[in-house]
Amino acid sequence: SDLVFVSEDLASQFNRSIAAPGDLVFTCWGTIGQLGFIEDNGPFSRYLVSNKQMKMTPDKDRVVALYLYYYLSQPKIVSLIKGQSIGSSVPGFNLGQLRELPVALPDLHTQRMIADFLGALDDKIAANDRLANTAQDLADSLFVAGLHQDPGTSVTIGELADRGILAFSDGYRTKRAEHGQPGFRILRAGDIPGGHILPEGVDFVSNVYARQIGQKISQPGDVILTTKGSVGRVAVVPSDLEPVVYSPQICYFRVLDKDALDDSYLAAWFRSSDLQAQAAKLMFKSDMAPYINLRDIRSIIVPVPDRNEQRLRGELQHSLLEIFHFAHSENRKLGRTRDELLPLLMSGKVRIQEAAEIVEGVV
């Protein structure tokens, strides 16, 4: 979306700035250190590099392009690029500095083996992403179809809470003095991309304060909703997620009486357009950043069918959610393993066969 095109005639005037399949593209102004590899994607395989990017065309007789991509993606190289940035207000990195970047080039056969191995890991990660997205799309479609057949009885979040069926609250307002390890990682809105949870923050609340945190430590099956800033992101806590403490940007919903409310059914409803439409009406109260407070949340209306209908829909939703969580769980393991193996393969400290055995032991 939002693509801008130039004609072939006009593009021919900028041949040096056209990136084609096999090229590498670097960000070099503002946000530097990002690297892209241009793949062959049909009509969208060539594009005009902007003046905030640089491109590199590897010599195929001397270097495997994908090897070079992985080599330059190493954290130590990215840190080197960022460390050499120039400019007092907006960081920049120029072609002269790019030319001076150190690159270790083993023979072509070794380069190709390393590129193929790391590429296979990324292909597996991409396949898992497609599986997860398909499972979630199917779950959402089936939920909408079922809701049209039987919309159930409308009840508010507040009423469910008052009847002891559902508990909900916002996150824990931690103080800097409470930070420490071992402890609970703080889960923020940015850790919830695409409907799954990927906790990557470096802030922890010490175990010493577990009693004060109380119910605001995650439990498997919790439905979480971002309620400040990026309002409307939804995810379900998987069984293999490390216990985290919810930040004030997040509200959690925990089913207490599963005989009265199916938690998988509830999770599916939270992903629906119904929830998003209600949230959109509640989030804008002033010129400040969008947010939904706990009083607003109490007023949100949930359609609740009878228990048997919930169970039937919930069982199917649970099965598809398990597929979604399994795919993302495996991707977390694969991603960590790839990132750990990358510098070891590049330095020759680990051989391909050893790396393959490590991956087999992880998944």
Q: Report the count of strand segments.
A: 14
Biggest pleated sheet = 4 strands, antiparallel
Poorly predicted residue ranges: none
What overall geometry do the principal axes of the alpha carbons give? Answer: elongated
Oligomer: single chain
Please characterize this protein's 3D structure:
The structure is a single chain. By secondary structure, this protein is an alpha+beta fold. It is about 40% helix and about 15% strand. The strands form five sheets. Strands 7-13-10-11 form a four-stranded antiparallel sheet. The chain has a three-stranded antiparallel sheet with strand order 3-2-5. The longest helix is centred in the middle third of the chain and has 42 residues. The chain is elongated, with a radius of gyration of 25 Å.
Any descriptors?
4-stranded antiparallel sheet; single chain; 3-stranded antiparallel sheet; 14 strands; 363 residues; 12 helices; alpha+beta
Secondary-structure topology with pairs:
Blueprint: H1 8-11, E1 18-19, E2 24-27, E3 35-37, E4 47-48, E5 53-56, H2 65-72, H3 75-83, H4 95-99, H5 108-149, E6 153-156, H6 157-162, E7 166-170, E8 183-187, E9 204-206, H7 210-213, E10 223-226, E11 234-236, E12 244-246, E13 250-255, H8 263-270, H9 273-282, H10 294-299, E14 301-304, H11 307-347, H12 352-362
Provide a compact summary of the structure.
The protein is of the alpha+beta class. The protein has helices at residues 8-11, 65-72, 75-83, 95-99, 108-149, 157-162, 210-213, 263-270, 273-282, 294-299, 307-347, 352-362, and strands spanning 18-19, 24-27, 35-37, 47-48, 53-56, 153-156, 166-170, 183-187, 204-206, 223-226, 234-236, 244-246, 250-255, 301-304. The strands form five sheets. A four-stranded antiparallel β-sheet has the order 7-13-10-11.
